Amino acid sequence: MPAVTITEREFSQFQRFIYEAAGICMANGKQALVSGRLAKRLAHYQLETYGDYLRLLESRAQPAELQVAVDLLTTNETYFFREPKHFALLRELALEARDKRQTPRIWSAASSSGEEAYSIAMVLADVLDEGPWEVLGTDISTRVLERARCGHYPMERASQMPPAYLKRFCLKGQGSETGTLLVERALRQRVQFRHLNLNEPLPKLGSFDVIFLRNVMIYFNLATKRQVVSRLLAQLRPGGYFLIGHSETLNDINDTLVAVAPSIYRKP
């Protein structure tokens, strides 16, 4: 069966679809990405055009397919200990919590396949050992959350991980699993992952000491950024920290937070 090409009109319809479903503004010129990721779904349903697939999604005849399409169209590329300054800050906060006998709660709000949440957990487990702490990882993609719960990754994702952590918290793949790592079960069991769309009202999550919202705002327009940040800040404790990606800013998005360092903000 020859490859199906996506028309300009179909592409703009998918831009609207992913914006309405996930608040993501897909840049122009991403036709190859859309067609590449959805081609197998056309084949699965024996559809002739991307327009036919869109009509299938909009008809809700296959309700589960909506989530499949969102999973395929949301980009998820990450690695362990991305942006080390954030983890240095987390270590300081964990030491403070230990001294004050507090239970730090940390939220990885766009956790993708879990590397960020497990990096957070490793720092907390290292400082607080068996002491109490909580890490929540959420994402709009059920596909990456499944991967996160497994905790199984290519070894190259750990190039920034402190070697002592790799040795202490991960199992090195042998035989057919060579070149991969598995986050040890005891740590995996202490990290909770759940499906969440940041563009919708949040369920009751409780309040957090630190919220990571890194490298996700780049996909949102200004109005969506403001709504998402405001929603998340309602869950941040006074004095808590809000961490964003180094290529991102909160200028024009929020003026209630105090900038502590590039990409690090604190709630008064």
Structure description:
The chain is α/β, with parallel strands linked by helices. The chain folds into 2 domains: 8-73, Chemotaxis Receptor Methyltransferase Cher, domain 1, CATH 1.10.155.10; 84-266, Rossmann fold. It has 10 helices and 10 strands. The chain has a 7-stranded mixed β-sheet, covered by helices on one side. A 3-stranded antiparallel β-sheet has the order 3-5-4. The radius of gyration is 20 Å and the shape is globular. It starts with 7 loop residues before the first helix and ends with a strand. The model has no long low-confidence stretch (mean pLDDT 95).
N-end to C-end Cα span:
60 Å
Global geometry: globular
The CATH topology assignment of the largest domain is: Rossmann fold
Instruction: Give the name of the CATH superfamily of the largest domain.
Output: Vaccinia Virus protein VP39
How many domain units? 2
E-strand count:
10
* Low-pLDDT runs: none
The helicity comes to: 40-55%
> Strands of the largest sheet, in order across it?
6-2-1-7-8-10-9
CATH architecture of the largest domain: 3-Layer(aba) Sandwich
Q: What is the succession of H and E elements?
A: HHHHHEHEHEHEEHEEHEEE
Global structural class: alpha/beta
The CATH class of the largest domain is Alpha Beta
Sheet having the most strands: 7 strands, mixed
The Cα radius of gyration reads 20 Å
Strand percentage lies at 15-25%
